[in-house]
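Q: I have two molecules that I believe assemble together. Could you output structure tokens for the complex as a whole instead of separate predictions?
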Amino acid sequence: MAEPDTGRFLADLHDLRRIGAYRTGVHRPTYSADDMESRRWLMAHMRDLGLEPEMDGIGNVLGRHPGPAPRLLVGSHIETQNEAGWLDGALGVVAGLALARAGLAVDVAAFADEEGHYGSFLGSRSLIGEVTEEEIDAARHAQDGTPLRNALAAAGLAGLPRMRLDPSRYRGFLELHIEQGSKLEKAGLRSGVVSGVFGVRIFRVEIEGQQDHTGGTTMAERKDAVVAAMRVLSLVDERFPMAAGPDTVWTCGRVVVEPNAPHIIAGRAELVIQFRDLDEALLDGLSSLLARIVQEVDRRDRCTLRLHPVSRSGAALADPALHAALKAAAERHAPGAWQVMPSGAIHDAQHIAKVLPMAMLFTPSIGGVSHHWTEDTSEADLALAIRILADAAEAALAG
Amino acid sequence: MAEPDTGRFLADLHDLRRIGAYRTGVHRPTYSADDMESRRWLMAHMRDLGLEPEMDGIGNVLGRHPGPAPRLLVGSHIETQNEAGWLDGALGVVAGLALARAGLAVDVAAFADEEGHYGSFLGSRSLIGEVTEEEIDAARHAQDGTPLRNALAAAGLAGLPRMRLDPSRYRGFLELHIEQGSKLEKAGLRSGVVSGVFGVRIFRVEIEGQQDHTGGTTMAERKDAVVAAMRVLSLVDERFPMAAGPDTVWTCGRVVVEPNAPHIIAGRAELVIQFRDLDEALLDGLSSLLARIVQEVDRRDRCTLRLHPVSRSGAALADPALHAALKAAAERHAPGAWQVMPSGAIHDAQHIAKVLPMAMLFTPSIGGVSHHWTEDTSEADLALAIRILADAAEAALAG
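A: Yes, here they are, computed for all two components at once.
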């Protein structure tokens, strides 16, 4: 059985957290000086382990194992959200190093900009051929508007070719990540074997009412966009539970009201509604249900409502063999202390799954905290995770 | 019967609209150079008519009639909302001049800052002794934060004493104003005799949920502030119609969601809910109903809700004798083409009513437009209004 050096694994994680350290977390936004230093740190460690590292024109780092097939691809992302946690994606990248150190035939990858500072999964999507030069030309920093081209040039990446993943090199892809939720902690469990990554549908509901003075306009005359928005949310709250599966989640996280003044009846409102599940047919059913709800309020209410699709990302199921290997390894190393669970958050694995068999493993997030510098996982659970991952990888390579 | 010079009345209104002209409307925010020029314009016209004008330390202009009692007070406000209509308050001020010109014993008033650029009805409230020096010290411009003291100094008003209204001078107060709604136009009527000015209750509902990732948090775990906000609005929509009177209006015009991002369950939300009616007991009943609704959602939902009173302005009923005089005059000058109606918007009359018998008259607003440069009323309806007002004033002075 492959015996990963858990002490060295933890030491590498602590070493990496020094780069861009922010309080007990890290601040390494994509293409920042600290992010680029972390990529060079990674390439140096790859070289020490006998992997052949390469960084490409979008910032992806891939360390190729020199030995013959069969091989696995192992990795995640190394940049972070602003003032965020020390583990998150770094955990999955350093896990790849630990597996290579344990003598397993793995390529190690750090996919660029998983955190979406400039785009949507630019690194993993670029590796599978989904990112065009036009998309790169058009991409801007989400907050400050810096063109992606300028950021790539400043990071020394302009002109470098972009790698394409060669699926024939690998039996599959493994990603270790923190849970980013509190299901494991609440259940008193130490590890989560991911059944798949939720598909996500995002819609925007646009509501046109009529802006009027709150005092001079009778209730019967009003076209109040806030009232129509409330009716949509109320029907979603009433009807989604009947159409949803046990794991489905749905959310309206964004509400825009115009002019949003106490004495003015809102003339316009906007809701952003999303839902997530592993079951694509169920997600399509919920999309139809939302369309019927919006149509119903449009017909009954004096406001005009329109539904606009914003984005759609397909669910990705774990490969049965890799998933089974992770379950078997979890039960060996932590009998009764793990569970199968879906990933509600999207990961690079969702995109890599389009070209390779994929499986993911979760470590518990203390207090469910994610994307904040206080994010943490106990060292015992981190050590357990690398033992499970190495064991499963060995089984997959032997199978 | 008092015969106002309707031609001169309209000419004065058109002359005044040149000051701060903006497209077909005007832009005369409180204490701006144009606002101060309009006050000097008013004082010059008062002098021409034999009134004795005075401007006070908050910008109120009062033109006192030199003759003996009985007298009436007639007026409104002369500053405007930004890029707003040419009539609004100016109509009621210039109406005062027209009545004085027709030989009626009226004092004419322009109350400062009815439009609330710096405070809440600063001019009329100051005249009845409700504004302290501390309130003036603390007041800031609603948008740019300029201290009121600085604005008063820049307008040349610093150090001037503030007038106090002497109720013993007057039989009552008359205010002519545009409707700011479309009830008259929709009913095909030309004039509205105001039964009273709605009282207003404003409350803020504060909702504390828990900010979480939309993908990693199960529906059962969530404390979603948007869902709790929707439940409050839904119960208001369901229960207010049963407790409200035929004229009651209720509105949520302001919704704040934090952090208001598509992928984050809202950790905090805020609703500003207001309701208006002539019946104070009914308004108190609705306040209790809202408190029960917020309590119910607080108990049933996983979020924590708190209700905060924001402001309370009492309803002001028209004085029966002045109201009857306006009705009689309306029927004489426009038989069958007028109606009794409440004022949903607050006016200076609501504050002056605390110390004087009060009555108001409305002219139709074309298309219901108010607080916008396209606001307008037909000249025929303006001329009709000044004839009704003069007739009623003459009756009140004779009575």
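A: One point stands out. Residues 200-313 of chain A form a domain with the Alpha-Beta Plaits fold (CATH 3.30.70.360).
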